[in-house]
Amino acid sequence: MSFHAVPVIDFSRASSTDPDERLALVKDIKDACTNVGFFYAKNHGVDAALLQNVTKAMKSFFAHPLEEKQKWIREGVAGYTPIQKLRHDPNQYGGDMHEAFEIKWELLDPLADSSRDDGIMSATNVWPDELPEFRLAALSYYHAVLDFGLSIFPLFALALGLPENFFDDKTTKPAAPMRLLHYPAQTGIIDDRTVGIGAHTDWQCFTLLWQDDVGGLQVLNQDNKWIDAPPIQGTFVVNIGDQLSRWTNDTFKSTVHRAINRTNVERFSIPIFFGSDYDVDIAPIATCVSEDRPAKYPSASLEIYSQSSFSAFAQFGCKVVVDSNSGRLFAQDAARAARSSPMSNSLIGELVSNSDLGFVFITFREHARTSSFIIVGSYSQRQYAPSGFAHPFSGLKTLGRLPLLSPQSPPLIFADFDGSSSNLGRNRSYALFNTSIQLSPSLSRHLCCAPVSPLHPFIDLSMSNPHYCTTMMYCLTRT
Ligand SMILES: O=C(O)CCC(=O)C(=O)O
Ligand SMILES: [Fe+2]
């Protein structure tokens, strides 16, 4: 049955001592996640003053001239993204009509908990020095919402018929980027094809979105009709992302949405995207699999990348191995290896594949403060990979060729899928795919890890820009 409105759920019941109230809350969450994939959370307990401070700070930031904001571009990492840089929906007209500032996990006091600073999604933030209050405002709000977000995982677990603590050990260091978004006012002749953020699904487990009172968020229902999700004072919009949808064998819906602001008033919103820890296997959860509803996804495959993005599998440094029995992909001693050879052109990757066909993904990240440079991203959006992985790469522009270590090696084609037609803006990602070779048991190939600059998006072994480096390699197999 299709939905025609986004339900509102009262979270004051989460702390109720009456078990029936809590059960009723869990039931509402379950209904919303299975039918709509979206709900409003009211009475979430996040202090309105924190929101006021962060919105004030973001408004001052975005009011700066473009040249100043551009200083804070750290592509694929954090910081500023200009208007029309992203294109969430490949079919949309023009780029996304919004600018963004992204913040990764960071403690207000960086010395307080060094255990968390593992370099995966932390320690990459930039803070505009012309706005001294910005960091405090953004991080205070961030941590308050993070706490609320983490408190939803047990409710999701109950809604899935799992023990309340099911997600606890899987969300100890969850990926949780926050984006401050500004959709500028539209003036003059407004093209009615302009979108603020094109149709897309979110990548991670779920998103908590604050939106101001301008409106413009829309959710696609099962009849392919856009349903408004208008602002409701004092609420967050919560939506399920691809990772939790996949993890729940599609029991929870990751629903397509977009935002349009063609008004002459500027709009602000703040999503925070909640992932899991990086080394969690997101094979379909047992309670979501039955004889009538067999597992739709293997334990690990390219689909994890193509549909669920990075968060569950973005941990590792260099050696990625596919287990032929389980089809599982895992990394060996990854982070340590990456740390031990920082910034070098040295060999850090070895790919071993037991299948006939594989893909390699390499993504690049700016060198993190901890010098454990990490990953991510990649091919994530569901609409690109509706039926497995045969199609998603077609039509990609070939940008260059990867110099291989051995002159006898057949060429690998290096293609950019984060360029002109891409939706993937959050992370600069590249696919390296073996159109001309087959990864087979007999093939164990070494690739070189090279510094790379976003300005020169090729793997070029002669480059040695100390600020950027290649990080990860993935090997994915058809199972
Ligand atoms: O600004 C909004 O209302 C939606 C933002 C969004 O969907 C996103 O950033 O993924
Ligand atoms: Fe979204």
Automatic annotation (TrEMBL):
It comes from the Eukaryota. GO terms for molecular function: metal ion binding; oxidoreductase activity. The keyword Iron applies. InterPro entries: DIOX_N, IPNS-like_FE2OG_OXY, IPNS-like_sf, Oxoglu/Fe-dep_dioxygenase_dom. Pfam families: 2OG-FeII_Oxy (PF03171), DIOX_N (PF14226). PROSITE patterns: FE2OG_OXY (PS51471). Residues 174-276 form the Fe2OG dioxygenase domain. Keywords: Iron, Metal-binding, Oxidoreductase. Belongs to the iron/ascorbate-dependent oxidoreductase family. PANTHER family: FI07970P-RELATED, OXIDOREDUCTASE, 2OG-FE II OXYGENASE FAMILY PROTEIN. This is Clavaminate synthase-like protein. It comes from Sistotremastrum suecicum HHB10207 ss-3.
